[in-house]
Amino acid sequence: MDSFYNYFSLVLFFAIPLIMTALGALFSERSGVVNIAMEGLMIVGAFVGILFINGKFTPGINSAAEFTDAIGGVAVYLLGVLMAIIAGILVSYLHAVASIKMKADQIISATAINTLTPALALFLTMSLALGQSAGTDKLPVSRNLYLIKEVPLLSKIPFFGELFFQNVYPGFYIGVIVIIVTYIVIYKTKFGLRLRACGENPHAADAAGVNIYKIRYLGVLISGAIAGASGFIFVIGFTIEFNASVVGYGFLAIAVMIFGNWQPFKIVGAAFLFAGLLTLSDGISFFPALDNLEIPEAIISMLPYLITIVVLVITSKNSRAPKAAGQIFDKGER
Amino acid sequence: MGKIKQFFLKLWKAIKNFFVNFSIKKVLKLFTNTKVLNSLAAILVGLLVGFIVMVFVAKDPFTGEWSFGTALDGLNRLFGGGARSPKNFGEVLFRSAPLILVGLSVGFAFKTGLFNIGASGQFMVGGAAALYAANLLTLPVGIHFAVAALAGIIAGAIWGFVPGILKAVYNVNEVITTIMMNYVAMYLTVMMVTYPKVYDQGLTAINTNFPTAHTPVLGLDKLFPGSNIDISIIIAILVAILMWFILEKTTLGYQLKAVGNSKDASKYSGINYKKSVAVSMMIAGGLAGLAAALHYLPIKPGYFRPVETINLIGFEGISIALIGQSNPLAIIFSGTLISYIKEGASQMQLYGFNKEITNIVISVIIYMIAISAYLGSVVNKRKERQKQLEEEDEDDANRIDDESVTKGGEING
Questions:
Q1: Which among A10, A3, A9 has a CA at the least distance from the CA of A287?
Q2: Is A102's CB within 8 Å of B371's CB?
Q3: From A141's CA, which of A121, A323, B294, B307 has a CA 20 to 30 Å away?
Q4: ipTM reported for the complex, 2 dp
Q5: A–B: how many Cβ contacts below 8 A?
Q6: Which candidate from A98, A251, A254 shows the least CB-CB separation from B367?
Q7: For A214-245, how does the pLDDT look when each residue is reduced to its tens digit (9 = 90+)?
Q8: Which CATH fold would you assign to the domain A2-253?
Q9: DSSP 8-state class, residue A219
């Protein structure tokens, strides 16, 4: 039981940022705008959020520890997420303007963002000496300050209490909220219906009186907000120094979104499957039977990617992207 | 065999025509082409933004205070650093060869409507294969290089073929398969590097001591003394011309582009869609594999280390392809441009500027190119409106003149 618990908590750890980012991309794609800028948006969210929690925006506070002492770890974390969201929205606006208003190729402006954000983050860190010492391009992350040791009452629930309510980052709960809200917004609200219509048949939606441009703007900005937050959550959970990279998670999330067939719950399932396999290489010691086979580590590490490809081949017949994704909407064109 | 002969005859004819019909007028016409002008304007804006960023962070290297002069020095290096001496320019050309080829890899797939994010993975396996061939075979000089490069091409082509065939037969989105193949390539090559027969403990990389397999220099170092230049840049340019030829002058290229323009229309017109997709991805992979061979085989090679990170060159390839707007000939220039800016940026570090400025400039260039068509149309519309207004003004003025004439007449009368 113990090994399963360890394994599962690691899987959760990997899966939450993947799910969040994939759901973010979903909002954009479902509105008809392909957004491969998720990687760049995650980076900018993490960068701004970490600067904030390290006290760079607040006069009088010089370190992360001072900040948490002043208002508490969870509050700092949540404010950091807020900053990350704002940063994500601002940068995704660049993508929205280019791809919606200026009718540019959606891959091009997204690539620009992916190139810009890590460069800008590294450049600013170095030039303005934002790291621990001058000349370093890494930002320190004191992640233990933000860990919730246990949630009162709930942590007493057998098994689940230990899994979900002890030693977790607040980001975990944000992730759960994002999953539920995404499902409700996309399937149960007027906005969600319009969003889906924009991605499937924008001309029909336009004829029905929907403002395509507005919906698409919202779709892209929401994706930016979620990507920013998940970048922050991802980096806080995984590392003690941030060097302007989310190690390809943004791209993996897009893969997970396609794997999940552009549907929220399938994305969650796909992310868990993927994270489960991904964790296998780190967590193989949890499974003595597998560990004893002595399969080379590199091969186990390859498995998640290979299995994803195989699953895609099997399920590809049902795969359906939003019809208008990637297409430029022009009111005058029929 | 006849087909191949025909292909080369055609290629020869095209090259001959190019030189026979070459004229300065044509070149000038090329530079007044809106697409080219847009790209040039985008590049200027990118460098300008780079300069503005530099102004903000410029510090005098001695006093440590803000200084505009330092920013100008930095700009000077960014703009002119690549051409300060034959050595620098030789270095720019040397570094540009793999960039051009990776750009071609992404651009070629773009032409068929495919998005090859997997150039990184194709590059990694291509590099490992080329280094294996360089280390494990014993062959005469020249031939050994060719064989090693071919090994790189084949490995890259296989890595591109897999996503291609999966897309063609099972309709699996190539974006996701190429991303997955990148990771598989990463773990595979990490395993391959540490194979004892090719691994160099001292370098912690694949052994680079393979005298017969190095890229031939062919006396080019006489032209650019002190630089590491070799024939890789010539290979890259020739391959770019070949890709242009395939896309523009052959049936295969026509089919590939038709598939890129409209999958359904190409199917109805009898083009073999599946074959086109698979072939296109295979060629794209081969190009990335060749890029890796040219990166790892020179006398001063890149080191192939067992690190679990994805080589970012594939993403640079996306930038290069986009700046060159997927035109193989334009990609020669965009690849060289990126290499040129990189060289300038590395010299800028003398003045305390971080070399990340390269990517800031590149991203602005890409963004400007993305929106250039829109900006261009806005400018044109405004011009047209102004013309219209002016014409209306003239009409009004004429009318007034007419009226005053008639009025004058009345008074006179």
A1: A3
A2: yes
A3: B307
A4: 0.89
A5: 140
A6: A98
A7: 999 999 999 999 999 999 999 998 888 898 88
A8: ABC transporter involved in vitamin B12 uptake, BtuC (1.10.3470)
A9: H
